[in-house]
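Forum > Structural Biology > Help requests

Title: Can anyone predict the 3D structure of Acyltransferase 3 domain-containing protein?

Hi all, first post here. I have the sequence for Acyltransferase 3 domain-containing protein but no way to get a structure on my laptop. I'd be grateful if someone could post the structure tokens.
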Amino acid sequence: MPTSPTPRRISWDLLRVVAVAAVVLGHITHQGALLHPELTGYPVRVTAQFGAAILLVISAFFVCASLRKGNPRRWLWNRVARLVPAYLVAVLVTYLVTRWAAVSFSGLSYPPGVTGFLFGVPPGPPTDPSPWYIPTWLDLVANLGMVQEWGIRTETFYYLDGSYWTLPVQLMAFTGAALLWPRPWRTHRLTVALLWALILVPLALRFAVFPPGTASPVVETFYYGLGLHRLHVFAAGVAIWLWAQRRLKTWHVALFAAAAVAAQDLQVFPFHVALPQDAERWPSTIGFAVLLLLVCLAARGPDWRLPGLARIAPAVTWLAGISYGLYLVHQELGYVLARALLDAGLPGWLRLPVVAGAAVLAGWAVTAGVERPAHRWLTRRRKPEEPQVKDAEPVFVGGGS
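Reply #1:
Sure, ran it for you. Structure tokens for Acyltransferase 3 domain-containing protein below:
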């Protein structure tokens, strides 16, 4: 007999929207100026980097909530079918738009023909004092294959969009979860020990085995390519789920949360790097800690159906539902739009809402036009004895900073 669906909770949707908003605003107002110095003049500057990490914590939490309900192989395919098609379309669109924009903004001319536009090298030096990087066919292939991290340190190829780092990391995490979940040796003690290892081993590798400044490019490529610097957020999400299921003591999950906050601070802002003085570090670390506490409250406490939140619940739910599509298209394409608006003479206070609004609209288009129909098509053929299991909550897969 089929079980009734779990009621949707506004608390989770609100956390997703807050985290996504932090990512989008941070990229528009802060990261954009670091990559393209002309993109300044906004009325606010959001330097905190915690949104993507919180989204990954929430994602790990709901991996546990949904994986226990069905066949791990079908669960994994469900994830792949949901994420990969929209990502591939976003990569192609971003490549085409950024190639056109980079050539135009740098004051160059297109090589002749369609092939020249798609893959050619524009002749002559750029005339703009802040030229934009022109992506190559190798960048396109690397991004489609999700192997950008394996070539960036040797300058072989680059990210078309800096936000794309999350997808290969999450797919590896999902694959690991699907492989480990049904194993009979996966006792509670071993699971907790594994979670602690996910936090402590990457820190030991980065700061003890290979002290800062001593690791070779090959070691760093494997470290970041395997996503070891982000494992602590997945460990925190699983630990919070265990605590919500009354399988982990409160003091123990508090230790996990404290360790995750410390790991987040060290991995994002390692102590051997000179910072532009704490303008990013403390807002990022404190923001991550506060949002992690709110994730704990959402996991085990009552839903946040306060009168004010109940009124905006439909809008919050809609934004949470397009969060993955929004994540895919907001950053590099947002920079292109911001530069075009700057060239058109729009001031920063007007550029900010236009770029943010365009990102939301584009995110909806990707979600409604690619993500959902592709997912339905790829998962519609099910055997009668193995019905498709819906998630208790829509799982955001992605992030930015």
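The two ends are 43 Å apart (CA to CA). The mean pLDDT is 88.
Shout if anything looks off.
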